[in-house]
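Suppose you are handed a protein chain with no further information: no name, no annotation, nothing but its sequence. What can you learn? This example shows the usual starting point.
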Amino acid sequence: MGAVHVTLDLENTTDADNAEVGLTPSTAVRRHSVRALVDTGAVLLVLPHDIVDHLGIRRRGKSVVSFADDRKVELETAGPVTVRIGNRAGVFECLVGPPTCEPLLGQIPLERLDLLVDPVHQQLVVRPESPIYPLYSVK
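A reasonable first move is to predict its three-dimensional structure. Written in structure tokens, the prediction is:
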């Protein structure tokens, strides 16, 4: 078993919303595809500074991030960004990592998109109970 990587299709959510209501042409929507490491030890989506800038995602604030080696670092947050993986999509905020760092897909996006890690085949799969739409428990 090894690391699981997945292609994320990213889109500036604000651009897409503006295009949907006719404020800007659909060709103006900023998009980018990137390979990300599925990191079940991470909580959030982490995108490198250069991709966040390329997409034009608005900075929202700062958060303190704790690493496995007990380091604590302040990182910017940005959003909204639409993330598509296969037939699943969601809107998220992200942590802004250093330029060219490896993008990480953490637990919150995995749960929100209702995706499971298949470490044997090194891929993400939809939960069998919810093959078409994500299924959330509210109890």
